[in-house]
Specification:
By secondary structure, this protein is mainly alpha-helical. It has eleven helices and no strands. It folds into two domains: about 90 residues, Helix-hairpin-Helix base-excision DNA repair enzymes (C-terminal) (Endonuclease Iii, domain 2, Orthogonal Bundle); about 100 residues, Hypothetical protein, domain 2 (Endonuclease III, domain 1, Orthogonal Bundle), CATH 1.10.340.
């Protein structure tokens, strides 16, 4: 590992800790899968408000698979893009019932074969549920990894590959958790607090 990368990771560890935190509330793998689908273009805080009642109303994979589309749309409306999300959730849970005996699968191939599940969602499940080292590329990871010079790409899959090469495996899940916290508090999209940032000297934008 390059000294520069090592120094950046040491600062992130020191500032944001090394615990594996999941920001989406869930008690079961299928609940995390639904919460992650709902989190597209929506804050985790809003998703957690919605899923609190949602998981009471639909307490199992089967109950989501059999849900009425219009009713589910109403239940998740405040998360945005609710037509697509509702359709995908019903199809996704139906496939888990039929093809995987009601259990969320663990492989990237099986997960991405489900409706509404791309690599980002699949890697959230792999990292948080199955503890498989995986790199999750969300908006914070995309923006900040570019600022830190870990990637020059705009393509999430290419960024994932670049980060897998750049970061040691044991940091993959942790990096995502730390970068979400960093992106929400300091390295924000619109008005980053550069004066408070301990990674200032490694930032390609700050040092242009």
């Amino acid at each position: 590992m390059k000294k520069r990368t090592k120094d950046i990771l040491a600062i992130l560890d020191d500032q944001f800790g090394v615990d594996h935190v999941c920001y989406l509330d869930h008690d079961a793998p299928w609940q995390l899968l639904i919460a992650t689908i709902l989190s597209a273009q929506c804050t985790d805080a809003r998703v957690n408000i919605v899923t609190k009642d949602l998981f009471r109303k639909y307490p199992s994979v089967a109950s989501f698979a059999q849900a009425d589309l219009k009713e589910l749309e109403k239940d998740i409306k405040s998360t945005g893009f609710y037509h697509n999300k509702a359709k995908n959730i019903i199809a996704c849970m139906g496939a888990i019932e039929e093809r995987f005996a009601g259990e969320v699968p663990s492989s990237i191939e099986d997960l991405t074969s489900l409706a509404g599940v791309g690599r980002k969602t699949a890697n959230v499940i792999r990292g948080n549920i199955f503890h498989d080292p995986s790199v999750v590329v969300d908006t914070h990871v995309k923006r900040i990894s570019k600022r830190l010079g870990f990637t020059t790409s705009e393509n999430p899959e290419k960024i994932e590959q670049d980060l897998m090469k750049e970061l040691p495996k044991e940091h993959w899940i942790r990096y995502n958790i730390q970068i979400i916290a960093f992106g929400r508090t300091i390295c924000t999209a619109r008005s980053p607090k550069c004066e408070e940032c301990r990674l200032q000297k490694y930032c390609t934008e700050y040092n242009q």
